UniProtKB/TrEMBL annotation:
Domain of life: Bacteria
Pfam families: DUF2063 (PF09836)
Domain Putative DNA-binding, first and last residues per copy: 27-97
Protein name: Putative DNA-binding domain-containing protein
Matching InterPro entries: DUF2063
Amino acid sequence: MIYRHQLEQLYEAATGRGAADMALFKPSRGNILTPQRRLNIYADGYHERLKAAVAADYPALAAFMGAEAFDALVAAYVEATPSRHWDLNLYPIGLPDLVSPGPAKDLATLEAAIVAVFWAADSAPLTTADLSGIDDEAFAQMGFKLRTASHLLSFEAAPNAYLTAHRAGGPAMMGAGPEHLLIVRHDHEVHRHDLEPLEYDVLTRLSQGQSLTDAIATEAAAERLPHWLGRWLTHGFFNKS
């Protein structure tokens, strides 16, 4: 219990949640560093590690905002967001909540979704083979559930085009939208699929539990369905079960 108390005291002090009992710290060799200075090494290192974890997941946002503004955003996020998990994989995904509405928020939301999809639980994809033998009436009443590791997004700006240009190493400019996307992990890679507005609407309806018949609400959507369905199954948009 004494050791546990010591660890709790160190954690509370290093994360800025409380004051440490300096009596718990033994003198350093030669008393070169005071107990408070030694504690500050832990605290500074802890916060710098959190900042590095956040910055690593938003390279395009950093380029778009500029180093000074981005560093200030990351510092504010770390200050406002204690880490509550045993690893840092998902710690950075709340950053868009601190960004004002606009192109920067769209870009932050896109990069956060990529991180979330990368770490989400896996699920087997639905394939054309799984649909063999199903008659037209049963097919029309089927529900199609999006993959566990997927996320539908809609933006007023064009953050995906910006991200693509940034990753290619060329000049990146934030253009006008809208953009509609499905982010999905398939075959162990995260893919970003541009969607037609009508296609986005149908996938949104399916994700809400509507049957295929109910989701295909217009003649235009029905005409596009054969093209969409082939792409959806080829690229693993849906869960097998």
